[in-house]
Amino acid sequence: MKTSVIIPTFNRAATLPRAINSLLRQRDAAELDILVIDDGSTDETPLLLADLMREHAEIRMLRQPNTGVAGARNAGLAHLLPETEFVTFLDSDDISPPGRFAADLPRLRAAPGVALSYGRMMLVDAIDPETLLPTSTAKRADIVGIHLSCAIFRRALIERIGSFDLTLRQAEDTDYLLRVFESGAEFSQTETLCVYYLRHPENMTRNTEEAIRYFALAVLKSIRRRRADPGIVLHKPDFALKSLVEIGYF
């Protein structure tokens, strides 16, 4: 059975190969299906992906007109393979650390009642293009944060939660995770380092006013759901319910 990794991308030809290679180096730990959603890129992304797909059978590409990150993630969910057992996500400017799948997939397989694993993330401002590790001088912050790449989901949970909210230009991932943790799904919180989150000038969250506004909206949606139905309880891993902007990482 496969582990599908959904990578939404838009004009990230400079960083996408690193993201994909960080997954390919973990093929010994997982039968990977790397599904890249090209959300209307106008740079070298389509040609780059065509070359990579000729070399690596694990990579698939879906091209579509630009719809935004939520629409791209939804397209990925709609094109999961029949044999997909687990699902996770990686942004096209981030890196999956060595050992990410080797650490958490066995835990999930050994505990059928656990719907997802959830680990740590490291914010960095420089990645070595050869080793795909933070450079020796990179600034780092190792945290438990709100990030889709920190989770590996069973497919049944993904199908239960449904689609990403297309009304959210940002924080669609926060909204999705809050819906997961309102669902009563059993999770396993691990110490696994799941993602190197690369900070750079083109991060969507660099638009701090918009990032905070949409994060607040995602949290408000969760509050409204729980007020409307007191039976809904937010049972989440040990992360602070604050955006990366609010806790000072941008």
Give the full name of the CATH homologous superfamily of the domain at 2-157 and 182-199: Spore Coat Polysaccharide Biosynthesis Protein SpsA, Chain A
Kindly identify the CATH topology of the domain at 2-157 and 182-199.
Answer: Spore Coat Polysaccharide Biosynthesis Protein SpsA, Chain A
From the N-terminal CA to the C-terminal CA, the straight-line distance is 39 Å
* Fraction of helical residues: 25-40%
Give start-end ranges of low-pLDDT stretches.
none
**Strand-residue fraction?**
15-25%
How many E-type strands?
A: 8
Q: Please describe the biggest sheet, giving its number of strands, its sense, and whether it closes into a barrel.
A: 8 strands, mixed
Radius of gyration: 17 Å
Can you characterise this structure?
The structure is a single chain. With 250 residues, this protein is of the alpha/beta class. The protein is built from 7 helices and 8 strands; from the N terminus they run βαβαβαβαβββααβα. It has a domain at 2-157 and 182-199: Spore Coat Polysaccharide Biosynthesis Protein SpsA, Chain A (Alpha-Beta Complex), CATH 3.90.550. The protein has helices at residues 16-24, 45-55, 69-78, 100-110, 155-161, 172-182, 208-228, and strands at 2-9, 32-39, 59-64, 84-89, 116-124, 140-143, 151-154, 187-198. Strands 1, 2, 3, 4, 5, 6, 7 and 8 form an 8-stranded mixed beta sheet that branches. Helix 6 (172-182) packs parallel to helix 7 (208-228). The longest helix has 21 residues, at 208-228. It starts with a strand and ends in a 22-residue tail after the last helix.
